[in-house]
């Protein structure tokens, strides 16, 4: 096999793996777009927006992507499909990393600039093995909101 053909084959295999990943799991670009849409919804009607996020309605749930928010004051989830009644501030991953606290530390009022990012270990839906997850973070009024992605293995 020629060196050039080997390189072409390797690049093709990498591209195919990336495309398969993008179909099964959300991408960073999709997560950022969903969070941008969430900011707009919060500014129109916060109460309705938080309900949509929790129910993953109106485009706020796609594969492993969803919006979740916590109150900027006490940290209690104001939108989450499973963790309502708990505090985002106190979440830790399997390594003991207090990533919930880090989310609150990096959250900045949304002004159109890039979102902050926090990474931690968390199992993919339906799995027990820990995977690297990154969340994009912003603050809108009294809400700290995030959309996360699982990084490719």
Q: How does this structure look, described?
A:
This protein has 153 residues and is α+β, with helices and mostly antiparallel strands. It is built from four helices and six strands. Strands 1, 2, 3, 4, 5 and 6 form a six-stranded antiparallel β-sheet that branches. A hairpin with a 5-residue loop joins strand 2 and strand 3. Helix 2 packs antiparallel against helix 3 (46-55). The longest helix is centred in the N-terminal third of the chain and has 22 residues, at 3-24. Mean pLDDT is 88; it is low at 1-21.
Condensed summary:
By secondary structure, this protein is α+β, with helices and mostly antiparallel strands. 37% of the residues lie in helices and 25% in strands. It has four helices and six strands.
Key attributes of the depicted protein:
6 strands; alpha+beta
Poorly predicted spans: 1-21
What is the β-strand count?
6
Mean pLDDT: 88
**Oligomer category:** single chain
The biggest beta sheet is recorded as: 6 strands, antiparallel
End-to-end separation in angstroms reads 29 Å
N-to-C SSE series? HHHEEEHEEE
Proportion of residues in β-strands: 25-35%
Q: Supply the number of helical segments.
A: 4
Radius of gyration from CA coordinates: 17 Å
Shape: globular
SSE-based structural type: alpha+beta
Which bin fits the share of residues in helices?
Answer: 25-40%
